[in-house]
Amino acid sequence: MTLHLPIPLITVVLLIGSNIFMTYAWYGHLRHHSLTFIGAILVSWGIAFFEYCLQVPANRVGYGYFSAAELKTIQEVISLTIFGIFSTVYLGESLTWNHAIGFALIVAGAFFVFKG
C-alpha cells in the first residue's frame, strides 16, 4: 500500500525529523561535559548520519515543488523552532525578548522568500 501524501507535507515532516537529529548532534553534547572533544565530535557525526538520512530525501522530494531557496528557508524556520524548544527543554536555557525578536525577523524574511 502506497501512501499518496502531499509533497509539502512529506518535505516538512522529513525536515522536522532531520532538524531534531541535527540540533541534538550540534548541541546535545553540551550537557555531557565528561565527553572529550574528539568523543563529542564522533558522537555528533554518528547522530548527524541520521540527520542526513532525512535531510537528503526531504530536499529531493521537495525540490521542484519548492525552489532551493524556499527549501532552505523552510529548513531555517524549522531549525529555529526546534532549537528554541531544545534549548529551553533540554539545555534549560531561557529565551529572552531579544531572541524572540531576532527569530521573528527571520520568519519575516521567510515571508518575503515565499511572497510571489
Intertermini distance: 37 Å
How much is the radius of gyration in Å? 16 Å
| Strand-residue proportion | under 5%
Q: Please tally the helical runs, counting DSSP H or I stretches of 4 or more residues.
A: 4
Secondary structure category: mainly alpha
Total beta-strand segments: 0
The largest sheet is: none
- The averaged pLDDT comes out at 93
Assembly form of the protein: single chain
- Give the SSE string: HHHH
Q: Which geometry do the CA atoms define?
A: flat
- Unreliable spans are none
Helical coverage, percent range:
over 70%
Transmembrane segments: 7-27, 33-54, 97-114
Protein name: DMT family protein
Pfam families: DMT_6
Keywords: Membrane, Transmembrane, Transmembrane helix
Secondary structure elements and pairings:
Elements: H1 7-27, H2 37-62, H3 68-89, H4 97-114
Account of the protein in words:
- This is DMT family protein.
- InterPro entries: DUF486.
- Keywords: Membrane, Transmembrane, Transmembrane helix.
- The chain is mostly helical and 116 residues long.
- The protein has four helices and no strands.
- Helix 1 packs antiparallel against helix 2 (37-62) and helix 3 runs antiparallel to helix 4 (97-114).
- It is flat, with a radius of gyration of 16 Å.
